[in-house]
Structure formats: structure tokens, C-alpha cells
Amino acid sequence: MVLLVRYGELALKSTYVRRALEDRLAENVRDQFAANGVECVVKVTRGRLFVHADDEVAALRLLRRVFGIVSASAAKEVPSDLDVLTKEVAAYARGVLASGQSFAIRPRRSGQHTYTSQELARVLGTAVQDAIPGLAVNLDAPNREIHVEVRGPRAYVFHEVVAGPGGLPLGSQGTVLAVAEDDAGMVATWLVMRRGCRPRVAGREPFLAALQAWDPRLAAMEPMSVPSLLRLAEEKWEPLVLACAEGLTAGDAAPFVLRPLVGLRDADVADLARRIRAA
């Protein structure tokens, strides 16, 4: 098995910027795995990361914590030759489908092949129905979707898609200061992390521990008031970017202040806090 990792807005960047972000994303995956004692090999291609790891369950759990990843799937890697691919998909279907269920083939191709995506869906769908009598095709709401992603000479077959946090790779957008002394502060910090910023966090447990699960290199500082943090920032860091939920008054001047929770309801913040802790 190989873990097929997808990213989103990175692909919209210029060639130079995209490559730099892809390299950063791959390095962050390696950091996350190393911090948790899970071995992996990461290969970067345009539009995808391929992660090889022996512990599939642990690998998927860790990939869900890596900012920049939109989704990941544990996939079976096979040749893209149509005859071989057809046999492999039929065998794969026997392990995830049963008579009486409905299914859909979701093909996707990249590169030059002797078949189109529509032809691939038709041939594979027929082979799956022949392999498991009693199956019904349902393209709108099937019991199971079998995805087949063909990339050049290789193809990847999978049925589960695990969502990631999305955003940009951590560390790709500079450093910010953050305050995490409650759920709101923890969520505000996490949101700027999702935009690629690496934070220096003034906070306390258990909020720091929850954030460290998302950033093994999290720079934690002792708890301090927002005014004290601003004074410290003026002495040591330039320019100052402060991410916080609340706590600034008109007298607390700061060149740049990020307020990630603006526009979020209390229920939204609570949902995000649960997600952060559950990682």
C-alpha cells in the first residue's frame, strides 16, 4: 500500500513557488512522522505526494495533522496497462463490496494512455460486476465508490478518502506571536498555523499540548499578558505580527494584529477546539 496525499491551493502557485511549497510540505510530513516514531519515505510529484509507511493506520492519523494536505488515501499501486489494471480492480472490489450493494467507479487520468476516462470507467465497472454477481451501478449515491487514479505507467486504487486540514504548509509564511490561554486562543493560533505561519506561543497546558500535536517544533513560551507580549516582541522580533482571540485594548499598539476568530460563532470555535484536541 502507498498513501496518496492531495493538496489544494499549492497547485495554483507559480512553478518556483509551488516547488518550494511542495518541498516544505514533504519536510513537514517527515517531521510529523519522525516526532511520532513512524518511519516513512516521501516522494513528491506534481499535484501529489506519495508516502510509503508500514503502519497505515498511524500514517493516516498523522497526515490529518499536516497543514497543506487536503486529503489522503491508502491506495493499492498497480500498472496502468488496461488488462492488468482491470484484473487488479476486480480483485480489489472483492475485498470492499458484497452482492446486493451498489457501487461507482471514479476514474481520473494524468498522462497519455490508450483509453479515455469514460472507457476506463466502463471496462472496470463491467469487470467488477462480473466478479461480484448482484452488484448494481449507482453513480449518484452508491454504497461504495472505487477510485482509480491513473498517473503515467502507474495506477492507484482506493475507496476511502481521509480529510486533512488544508491550508498552506506550516512554516511557509513566516513567524507570528500567539496567545493560547483558553480554547479561543488555541483556535486562533491553529487558524494562523493553517495559513502557513509558524507561531511562538505564550500559553499554558493543555492548550500548548494540543497545538504541539499539529506542530512538533512548536515554540512555547511562559504565559504572559498581551501587553507584556507586545513589549517582548518589540524588543526581539521585527516586524510584529500578533495572533490572538481577545485581550487587546486601544492602548496596546501593535503594527500588525491578526484576529482569526472574527466572523466565527462560539459554536464554530467550540467545534474547531474539539477537532484540534481529537487529532
Task: Provide a compact summary of the structure.
With 279 residues, the chain is α/β, with parallel strands linked by helices.
How would you describe this structure to a colleague?
By secondary structure, the protein is α/β, with parallel strands linked by helices. It has 3 domains: 2-77, Alpha-Beta Plaits, CATH 3.30.70; 81-152, VC0802-like (2-Layer Sandwich), CATH 3.30.2130.30; 175-278, HUPs (Rossmann fold). The protein is 36% helix and 27% strand. The protein has 8 helices and 14 strands. It has helices at 15-35, 56-63, 82-96, 117-131, 183-194, 207-212, 226-236, 266-278, and strands at residues 2-7, 41-45, 48-52, 69-79, 102-110, 136-137, 144-151, 154-158, 162-163, 175-180, 198-203, 219-221, 241-243, 256-258. The strands form 2 sheets. Strands 1, 2, 3, 4, 5, 6, 7, 8 and 9 form a 9-stranded mixed β-sheet that branches. A 5-stranded parallel β-sheet has the order 12-11-10-13-14, sandwiched between helices. A hairpin with a 2-residue loop joins strand 7 (144-151) and strand 8. Helix 3 (82-96) crosses helix 4 (117-131) and helix 5 (183-194) packs across helix 8. The longest helix has 21 residues, at 15-35. It is elongated. The chain starts with a strand and ends with a helix. The model has no long low-confidence stretch (mean pLDDT 90).
